[in-house]
Amino acid sequence: MAVRGQGAALPARVAWVLALWLGLGCFLSCAGQMRTCAPKDLEQLVTYLTTTQCQLIEASAANFLANEDSAKQLTTALLKSTTIEGFSAVRCQLNLAFLDALANALASGLRLQQLDLSHNRLPPAAVIRLAQAMRRAQSVEVLNLMNAGIDDDVLAQVGADLGHGPLRDLNLARNAISEHGIEALAQPLRERKLLQKLDLSMNPLGDRGVVSIAVLISEVKSLRHLSLAAVQSEVIGARALAATLRQGKSQLQVLIFSKNKQLGVVGGEVFQSMLVANPTIKYLDLSMNALGTAGVQAVLRGVGPSRTLQQLLLAVNDAGDGILPEFVSNIIAHPTLEALDLSYNLISEQGAMNLEKVLVAATSASRMGTLRKLYVRRNAADHATLQRVCDFPRTTHTALLSTTKKHRSLAREGKQSSSQSGTCDASSADCETPTSATEAEATSHGKRHYTATEHRRSAFENLERNLIIVLALARLERLADAFYAADITTLAGFEAEWRQDGGSSRVCIQRLLDVQVSVAESDKLDVMMRDKAPGLILAAQLAARNIPIPDLKENQN
Hints:
Helix content: 40-55%
Distance between the termini: 53 Å
Shape: elongated
């Protein structure tokens, strides 16, 4: 039972003044006398509701509704309360008498703003009466009917009443609602346009139901949070939803589309196109959709252009080491993404070690973006390796904050010493303008960029623009055979240098950056590498971002 309230004890400011005078011991003693407003039985709850001993704001009826008399007693007390705003009766096996009494209380003036009747098998007649009473009361803003036994027939009768109230948060998860029930609910919600949060998870909506939801969110601009987990949707539903979001017809910020059927590569590409164009999504959950390595790669490619996404969940999608290049090119330096979940996938021990090396290299080159939480638990790698990868962004961020504070302190000290030193002759060699550590680092950072030749810059831009795929993780033989089969004359010297050097990633990239490739050649190489080089573009992406190339190895399993 969870109850919040305000007791009749001394105000906090008075208690604080007393504590200053009487000491910590007296303060603790006084604080211990404050009423907690946690009733232990029905009688005490009724007392709190009907008197000023404790001004209840939220009350729970758990374990207090043993019979019809107690139900009537409680609803009468609720009606008398002048402060109650929220009421919860979760898993109470609610009887029809209590539900009728609650409906009567709402119709008679009970001004509840939050009502939670989840995990109760509610009789259809009681649900209809409650919805009618809520429409009359015009006060309930948050309604939780999760796992309440609601089906299409019930929703068809109560949809109009729910839609015409001031609802902003509606939870209908874990019921028996199909596309027919959604159609009955959608029209009233379109007319009211107040809804901000809608949870329809674990309902058999199917593709048609999700298509109806896609139309709904394009018309209800107030909706910010949508949960469609485990709604038995396939690619058709995902495509309709993504199309609405891609076209900017919705202001949705949170989308949960996990635990649906096998979306695969096509599903990943659908959400890739959505992320590229959508200007509002901040939280996206695509866990347990069987996207596979290629599907997750597609989603990560969509993250790169996004400038709003903050959290992305891709757990349990059968993704392997092939996602690492897309992680480098789209995640490492991302300006808004803070959390990425890749748990319960197929990243190998070598893949996890390479991921750790990439994180270290990016950090040392000051190329890390906003990523603070990286979850890779329960992959195919050793637990200790995965734990180091998980801890790295968080510890790096902490160290960065500490370094920034130190830099600011040094900058302040530099300004103080400058003001105290007076003036000096600008022509003198001993006269130097104080420079903070932060400015010095920025200057050094700029020099690293300046030393890169324009030729290499334009060369890599040409390669990336024409989709040249470089195999930096593959074995020497595979890469050499691939270039030989491609028969591209402008890269003829590259194969010889690769063989002579023994497959060094550094020499590979430095040589490649000096090569100019035509559009026709790049298309040919692109097709060839997609077939023979699943490791893809990792080292090239590192080099393009001035990140030191670590000693990466391919998984030999």
